[in-house]
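Database export, one record per block. Field names are fixed; values are copied verbatim from the stored entry.
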Amino acid sequence: MQTVALGHNDILLGVTDGVTEARSPSDELYSRARIEQSVKAAAKTSTQKFIQGIKEDLSRFTQYADQADDIAILVLQRS
């Protein structure tokens, strides 16, 4: 078990494997590295825009293909 202290305005992000295992038309995985890039691009926005940015990037990556797995994104921000 690991404990992490969240500071003011810190964000905790949780995603299901349906996000990291989403595939592009060329069969590439979305991956954790891609999520990290998406997070950096969405930094300093509202939590709603934060989630929307990740969802939009994921959709572009998969070129709007049908989902093969569950996709859930949880964002918590300490105020």
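Remark 1: The radius of gyration is 13 Å.
Remark 2: The mean pLDDT is 89.
End of record.
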